[in-house]
Design a protein that fits this description.
It is built from 4 helices and no strands. It is mainly α. The radius of gyration is 12 Å and the shape is globular. It comes from Candidatus Taylorbacteria bacterium RIFCSPLOWO2_12_FULL_43_20.
Length: 75
């Protein structure tokens, strides 16, 4: 999937490493991503990693963190 420039406004999306920058990518998609980006993220990244990012993130917006904590709790 090609990362959207408007989602990664502070960097060049072509230079983002999908593995090394997983937390950064997950946080941005959870906070600002479209449905298709969220679906891609859930297929590409392990559920445990996404859950860990939500639990430990200090940059997710509070409402985003609450929503995804609830959504990931029983999956």
């Amino acid at each position: 999937m090609k990362l959207r420039q408007t989602l990664f406004w502070d960097t060049n999306p072509d230079k983002i490493d999908l593995e090394k920058n997983a937390q950064y990518i997950i946080e941005r998609i959870l906070d600002f991503g479209h449905d298709d980006e969220v679906r891609w993220m859930r297929k590409f990244y392990d559920h445990a990693l996404i859950k860990r990012v939500v639990e430990k993130s200090r940059s997710l917006r509070p409402d985003t963190k609450k929503l995804w904590t609830l959504l990931l709790q029983n999956v």
